Structure formats: C-alpha cells, structure tokens
C-alpha cells in the first residue's frame, strides 16, 4: 500500500546518479497501481535573476565547460551574496509556477530543493544558513519532509559519473558537490541510494520505503 497520497516524492543528487530513471520508474509504478501521479522536472528557471546573469556573463564570472554554465560568482563577494538571495527566491517562485501544491495527486519530482541548496553553495562558496532566505529554504525542506514529502538522495562516485555522462564539466565540479549532498541528506534524514547499484535494486529500495 502506498502511504504518500497526495504527496511529493523527490530525487536529488549529482549528475549521472540515476535520478531521472528512478523518478520515471516510480511515476509509472504509481500509475499502474491506480494512483494519480505526475513526473515533474525541477531543474531551475531564471526570473528575477536574469539581469544579474547577464552582468555576470559580461564580467566573465560565467563560463561554459562541456556545454554546462559554470558560475564562479565566489570571485566577487558582493555578487555572491546577491546571487544567493535571488537564486533561492527564484526557485521558490518556480515551485509556485510548477503548481506543486494543492493537487490531488502524487508528484514525483526530478531534482528538488536539496539540489538548489548544493548549487548555490557551489556558485558562491557561501553558507546559505547565514542568510534569512537560506534559513527559510532549509526550514521549508525540513517541514516538507516531516509532512508531505519523501525524498531520496542518489549518490554516485566520480568514476561512475563520468562514465555515464560526458557533459560533466570537471572532476572538481562533481567532487565538490558529492560531500555536500551527503551532509545534507544526513541532516535531513533522506535515504541514500548508490547510483552504482542496479536500477532495479534501487527501485526496489525506493518502493519499499514508499509502501507498507
């Protein structure tokens, strides 16, 4: 029996860890069980931050590595602090526009708030918890996980990640992020699945966490 309805089931983790595969498999499984379910991809979209993105590109703080934009906003302290605030606020707006709340259905989300938290730390090298919006963002995650949401972290080692994805910018890019994901998952009490295991094995673990 699925115990989350209506709720949010989300998958977070570094590139190449298998988030999308698991999210789509869970969505299909829920539909087969007769539940209303919807797959939602929640990468991020710029709203208020468009002007700042343009300025940073002109100043050379944004570069592209293997088709991915790498934001080195930590090189300018003022921009880093401003980006932290606007980036998190933009995601809150994006969540609202995606209509993740108030629907009588199970929402299976591919990338969610933990991913944004890791992104902003990577971009700025700042501690989001030293800002009001950062604290609010983390508190929102905690509240969701205590009530309406169930999250999973898809962990993967660097070697496997680069074997699966040819667009990972650099070793430092993913090696910087993996420990952050693990620390955040530990703090939030999110189950950690190793993306190096078989797809079916991880799927079975996910479903056993969702069923009783």
List the helices and strands and how they pair.
Layout: E1 8-12, H1 19-32, E2 37-41, H2 50-59, E3 62-65, E4 68-71, H3 77-97, E5 106-110, H4 113-124, H5 132-146, E6 149-155, H6 158-164, H7 171-188, E7 192-194, H8 199-210
Parallel strand pairs: 1-5, 1-6, 2-5, 6-7
Antiparallel strand pairs: 3-4
Explained architecture:
The structure is a single chain. The chain is an alpha/beta fold and 212 residues long. It has a single domain (8-210), classed as P-loop containing nucleotide triphosphate hydrolases (Rossmann fold). Helices cover 51% and strands 16% of the residues. The chain is built from eight helices and seven strands, in the order E-H-E-H-E-E-H-E-H-H-E-H-H-E-H. The protein has helices at 19-32, 50-59, 77-97, 113-124, 132-146, 158-164, 171-188, 199-210; strands spanning 8-12, 37-41, 62-65, 68-71, 106-110, 149-155, 192-194. The strands form two sheets. The chain has a five-stranded parallel sheet with strand order 2-5-1-6-7, sandwiched between helices. A hairpin with a 2-residue loop joins strand 3 and strand 4 (68-71). The mean pLDDT is 89.
């Amino acid at each position: 029996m699925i115990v989350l309805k209506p709720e949010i089931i989300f998958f977070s983790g570094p590139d190449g860890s298998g988030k999308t595969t698991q999210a789509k498999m869970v969505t299909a499984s829920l539909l087969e069980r007769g539940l209303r379910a919807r797959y939602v991809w929640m990468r991020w979209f710029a709203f208020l931050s468009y002007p700042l993105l343009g300025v940073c590109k002109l100043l050379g703080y944004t570069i592209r590595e293997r088709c991915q934009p790498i934001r080195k906003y930590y090189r300018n302290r003022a921009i880093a602090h401003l980006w932290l605030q606007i980036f998190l606020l933009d995601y809150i707006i994006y969540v609202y526009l995606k209509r993740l709340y108030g629907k009588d259905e199970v929402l299976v989300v591919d990338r969610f708030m933990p991913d944004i938290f890791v992104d902003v730390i990577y971009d700025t090298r700042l501690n989001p918890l030293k800002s009001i919006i950062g604290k609010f963002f983390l508190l929102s995650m905690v509240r969701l996980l205590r009530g309406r949401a169930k999250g999973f972290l898809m962990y993967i080692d660097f070697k496997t990640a680069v074997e699966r994805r040819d667009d990972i910018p650099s070793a430092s890019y993913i090696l910087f992020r993996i420990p952050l994901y693990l620390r955040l998952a530990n703090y939030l009490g999110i189950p950690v699945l190793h993306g190096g295991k078989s797809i079916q094995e991880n799927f079975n673990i996910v479903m056993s966490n969702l069923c009783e």
